[in-house]
Amino acid sequence: MSGTGGPTLPQERRLVTAIPGPRSQELMARRTAAVARGLGSTLPVFVDRAGGGVIVDVDGNSLIDLGSGIAVVSVGNSADAVVDRVQEQVARFTHTCFMVTPYEGYLEVCEALNRLTPGDHEKRSALVNSGAEAVENAVKIARAYTGRQAVVVFDHAYHGRTNLTMALTAKNMPYKHSFGPFAPEVYRVPMSYPLRDPDGMTGAEAAARALDLVEKQVGADNVAAMLIEPVQGEGGFVVPAPGFLPALAGWCLDTGAVFVADEIQTGFARTGEWFACEHEAVVPDLLTTAKGIAGGLPLAAVTGRAEIMDAVHVGGLGGTYGGNPVSCAAALGAIETMESLDLRRRARRIGEVMTSQLREIAASHDVVAEVRGRGAMVAVELTRPGSLSPDAATTAAVAKACHAEGVVVLTAGTDGNVLRFLPPLVIPDHLLAEGLAVVDKAFATVG
Ligand SMILES: *Cc1c(COP(=O)(O)O)cnc(C)c1O
Q: Is 130's C-beta closer than 6 angstroms to any atom of ligand 1?
């Protein structure tokens, strides 16, 4: 056990001040004076330590973490294997630039990605710093391989905040508003969204609806890549109807487009498999990862078929910090933790607990239109009772009530009417149960 934070922290919810406490309020005032206004925060609480299933703030409050820093610390904060490998690496060397003088840790991460991602074909990987950068590189690679330009994306998609990924992202406010012009050759088609699609629409029918638009408005021969989150993240944990993803992947195979799965939020054991595509036996041509990959250190990757990845000329990919040795060490520690603790199984178990608890809440609160998700990635969508009209106000009120009681929950959805739950996969059972009890109480209070 290392240090005074991380896995050794008492696993309890403990409120010793109001949320935020006085010290957090002081820091919030400094934040306002020093940090650009464009950066939001879900909770106005500053962190002192975190580990397991808790975040301890600077006032000594211990909060239950049902967000994992947006699906990042799936192995828990400061997980032992991450801390040990990072400390060892940071003392040996911190950076040489892989493009100048390479190092073995980078290879080990690529080998792990090639082994763990779906499909047993020959693969290659490239490492970068952020999810958005991984998505941008997937598009570059698909264009170089196909000699085509068009990229097909879906309603409610989230792929990042850089210029190209803003174009790929669906939601205007807050991600795109006032930041145009956006990159060209991006085409958006309808997602399979079972709650909101016509009753009984199958995955195959939803795919046909999307593909018909692609063929008529873009032209199959022009599509370089079709890019999709197998379960949408920021869009509200939308799980497409069964058959939707396989139909899209099949169309790409037939037409020569590159099928890209953005598994940045769904990847690395979060949904109960290494990658969410596996739930439908879909093998993407390219797959992007970030978030859960490295226990909190910045790292992201593109992994895919060798012939596609290797279509790019030497020097065409890279970046100063991409695959930083300390981040690679963290990734190897995180992957080791996922394997040794069998966190895929744990994610399935957490998913069962969350789903059954949230279904009980749904049964007594008709503002909940649906409970959905995969594994430890579960959400509830809130609408005005008896309708599909999104209820963002109640969603925000429930989230706020949870925060005040010391439970970190996140919202999502194009309409801001989804509460999403992404606990660390190492959260103890008693904390998960207590966190969900607080959510239940928040629904009752908000009424
Ligand atoms: C978070 C996210 C991104 C962007 O990742 P960053 O590291 O924030 O750039 C892209 N795609 C999906 C699905 C995400 O959840």
A: yes
- For residue 162, the ligand 1 atom closest to its alpha carbon is 9
Q: How far is the CA of 16 from the centre of ligand 1 (A)?
A: 34
- Looking at the domain assignment, is residue 394 inside a domain? yes
Q: Which of 340, 375, 399 is the last residue of a domain?
A: 340
Q: Is residue 75 part of a domain?
A: no
Nearest to 378 by CA among 342, 344, 353: 353
Residue owning the nearest CA to atom 15 of ligand 1: 265
Is residue 311 a contact partner of residue 145, using CB atoms and an 8 Å limit? Answer: yes
Total domain count, the chain:
2
Domain ranges, residue 272? 82-340
130 and 173 both lie in a single domain? yes
Residue 4's pLDDT is 60
The minimum-distance atom of ligand 1 relative to the CA of 70 is: 1
Burial letters 71-101, b for 16+ CB under 10 A, else e: bbbbbbbbbbbbbebbeebeeeeeeebbeee
Tell me, what's the pLDDT at 447?
A: 77
Whether pTM exceeds 0.70:
yes
Q: Pick the atom of ligand 1 nearest to 300's CA.
A: 7
Q: Is the CB of 160 under 6 A from ligand 1?
A: yes
Domain boundary among 340, 368, 383: 340
Residue 374: which of 265, 252, 293 has the closest Cα?
265
Ligand 1 atom closest to 291 (CA):
7
Q: Which amino acid is at 335?
A: I
145 and 157 both lie in a single domain? yes
Residue of 291, 297, 327 to test ligand 1 pocket, by largest number of atoms within 8 Å of CB: 291
**Bridge partners for 266 per DSSP:** none
Does residue 273 form part of some domain?
yes
Query: Above 80 in pLDDT, residue 216?
Result: yes
Give the C-alpha distances (Å, rounded to integers) separating 402 from 37, 280, 370.
25, 34, 19
Work out which ligand 1 atom sits closest to the CA atom of 135.
Answer: 10
- Residues 236 and 304 both lie in one domain: yes
How much distance in Å is there from the Cα of 23 to the middle of ligand 1? Answer: 31
At position 154, the amino acid (one-letter code) is: F
Scan for tokens 């001040």, then name that residue: 17
| Residue 299 and residue 293 in contact, taking contact as beta carbons nearer than 8 Å | yes
Q: Is residue 12 part of a domain?
A: no
Summarised one tens digit per residue, pLDDT across range 25-34 is 999 999 999 9
Measured in angstroms, how far is the CA atom of residue 364 from the centroid of ligand 1? 34
